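Note to self: user wants both folds in one dump. Writing first protein now.
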Amino acid sequence: MTAAPAPVLVTGTGTDVGKTIATAALAALARSVGLDVGICKPMQTGLAPGEPGDADEAARLSRVQRVLEVRRLPDPLAPETASRVAGVPQSTLDDLLGPIRRWLDANRDPASVDTAYQAAAPAEKAHSAGAAAATEAGRLDLIEGAGGVLVRLGTDLTVLDLARSLDAPVIVVARAGLGTLSDTELTIRAIEAAGLRCAGIVIGSWPYDPDLAERCNVEDLPRLTGVPVLGRVPAGAGQLDPAEFTRHAAQWFAPGALDAVVRPRAAHLP
């Protein structure tokens, strides 16, 4: 039996870099080649109960049906701080891993192919990045972190700790402009120092008319980090309606982008 693909953790070089919209774009890209896609947000802060969260927004734009939010805290703060301010227990690794693993193990079907993909024209399928190799994996589970890789989800529990426990490769969402080279290289060094694989970089908000620094950064990021730039999500993409968003998402990524992301793991998690 082929091992299920590992989930992919989407992190950022900081806050407000476009992680949620980049997660939606990756989900839409994966759906365009027939993968069964799920979106998970382990920690959501800054929203009251019942308000749509980041996972809901990414799922709305990408038309993904499998969605999980594990824990929500009301104040717009880092999760550890938000727990402390709210006077509630800090999250532990087991608190987050249990629900995520149950979600990952539910409805595992390597042969699952999106019905929208089945109905697509052959030329449309051929245009999709990484179609052949990625479709063999059957599914893609995206886990959106909170802020950067060292954000604490609980006391002594970082986003990197969660990724390591899930055996998850990491995608880094980065800014386009001046300063992103240092931010991104530091983030990727932290990922690699933790023994994790950085699958690629996605520019979270690519301007319509990029300036000199932004154009140079697209070339310099892979040279300095050793990690490919998988895609550039246009600024304002989150304002598109879901039909437009899903129709254009594949155009925002390099050919073969999914092949760098979707790789079966050697064995199931214990």
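First done. Writing the second protein, which came from a different request thread.
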Amino acid sequence: MELFVEDMDVSVKFYRELLGFEVQRRAAGYASLRRGLVVLGLGPVAKLPAQGEGRGFTRQRLSVDKGAGVEIVLELDGLDELQALYEHCRERAVISEPLELRSWGLYDFRLADPDGYYLRITHGNAAARIG
């Protein structure tokens, strides 16, 4: 998955320092980050064409609302890891929805990245419960 972002430095810092991704590769127009099995690419909006026809990405199209209608789900290995990341994020970012048990049996919390991409952070074990 690649996200087009306004400020590469701000986005790399968000994913690295807040969510624990490691930078695998960094160049002027691209960054590749990894957390576990998840690989995330970041590219600058500025490298896109200003406008165009069809369904391709353009700066004009992304100026309306980046990520509208998309929820990016990061699934962690377990509930302890989820709780720790939630506490880390809660002290450093605006949480859209707090950590809670959902009707489908998993805990999650939600937040947006600096460009407004909506993130749901959850865990992979439906049997787990918070103490």
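Dump finished. Worth passing along: The mean pLDDT is 85.
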